[in-house]
Design brief:
Methylamine Dehydrogenase, Chain H, five-stranded antiparallel beta sheet, four-stranded antiparallel beta sheet
């Protein structure tokens, strides 16, 4: 047997229309790009076996200068960096992510006892937060001052870590089987949704439970604090979203419309509206005061797992079982861009606080950063494919 290596490189260039009035764009898969005949590798013969050798993991390149993502450039987003969960973990399915308040760090929750923290600019792993043995995580959140990170999981409850040292501080209350959690804006409380159909708010200073929300007839999939901290919104497996008084657990309004599970929920920055993602493939915005649906977003062709507002409240980002990230204009309901990077279910999107990045996590074990470079050319590095060809001499 003899061995030879064929290296093929193709530069992928995308022509994208500037402005949100342009057509939505999807990155071109490598498989759809045909190299010139002079650069194409020789076709294998019947006596040739063709295999692709895995390339070594390169050191992540620093991010290029970025524009804030807006309605004017939402169709120009490109995939900037992909980080894979380590293979040594039990499973690489990633369920949630969070940027630190200063936007410098990114945390991810996956079905593993450990929680990775990355430096956003360099892509380097800063540290790994060690969880209790055999725990898995469904949700992570930074405290508003960035000093603590909270994580909750299906069999673990809620735990807190010191971000600077990586020290695990304590468990919060006796909550178990947590689906999602959220810090209050003042950082003094934490809300947790549970698979037993309830949600709770805990005081982080005293450790006492302040309120319990009972009303969902099935598991609670998501929770969110209002910007002023007075209300908590929740979504559940009973196909409803609800808004509660955070201090007492009193139900304020039931938000109806979805025909399947409500998987994610978020308040608008002004606190007057709530957006929910549903397994019925729709995204809905409700008026909190009246409970009426004021906008419906249609386009995903699979259950919508995650949705969030941009920091200025003008855009929505959503993730779905159809593996796409989509951006929407809040005021018009128009789809501004559709982007596919995940190879399995896309679970959650999260905006960086300065709006220059969106991070998405998925069940393919990937954490993808998306953005709009100031210099568009800096986003397109040559694709290098290393092919190992073996044949009989």
């Amino acid at each position: 047997m003899t061995t030879r290596y064929v290296v093929a490189a193709a530069v992928i260039a995308l022509a994208l229309t500037a402005g949100c009035e342009g057509a939505a764009s999807t990155p071109i898969p490598v498989s759809e790009v045909t190299p010139p005949a002079s650069e194409a590798p020789a076709q294998p013969t019947a006596a040739t076996a063709l295999t692709v050798a895995p390339a070594p993991s390169p050191t992540p390149a620093p991010l290029p200068p970025l524009q804030p993502i807006s309605g004017d450039n939402a169709d120009q987003i490109v995939e900037l960096r992909r980080t894979e969960m380590p293979d040594l973990w039990e499973t690489r399915e990633t369920c949630g992510g969070a940027f630190s308040p200063d936007g410098r760090m990114l945390a991810a929750a996956c079905k593993s006892p450990d929680i990775p923290l990355w430096d956003v600019e360099t892509g380097q792993l800063v540290r790994t937060l060690r969880g209790p043995t055999r725990r898995v995580w469904a949700s992570v959140a930074f405290s508003p001052d960035g000093q603590m990170l909270a994580a909750g999981g299906h069999d673990s409850g809620v735990f807190l870590w010191d971000v600077a040292t990586g020290e695990r501080l304590r468990k919060v209350g006796d909550t178990a089987n947590v689906s999602e959690l959220a810090f209050s804006p003042d950082g003094q409380r934490i809300a947790a949704g549970n698979f037993n159909g309830s949600a709770e708010v805990w005081d982080l200073v005293t450790g006492n439970r302040l309120a319990e929300f009972l009303g969902h007839r099935s598991r609670v999939n998501c929770v969110a604090f209002s910007p002023d901290g007075k209300w908590v919104a929740s979504g559940g497996g009973d196909n409803k979203a609800r808004v509660w008084v955070a201090s007492s657990g009193q139900e304020v309004v039931v938000l109806e419309g979805p025909t399947r599970f409500v998987e994610d929920i978020a308040f608008a920055p002004d606190g007057r509206q709530v957006v929910g993602a549903s397994d019925d493939t729709r995204i809905r915005i409700w008026n909190v005061d009246t409970g009426e649906v004021v906008q419906t977003f249609v386009g995903h062709y699979g259950p919508v797992n995650g949705v969030t507002y941009s920091p200025d409240g003008c855009l929505l980002a959503s993730c779905s079982n159809d593996r796409t990230l989509r951006l929407w204009d809040v005021s018009t309901g128009k789809l501004l861009g559709k982007f596919q990077g995940h190879t399995d279910l896309a679970i959650r999107p999260v905006f960086r606080p300065d709006s220059t990045l969106i991070a998405t996590v998925g069940w393919d074990g990937a954490v993808i950063l998306w953005g709009v470079p100031v210099d568009r050319r800096s986003a397109f590095e040559p694709w290098l494919l290393k092919v190992r060809v073996t044949h009989d001499s």
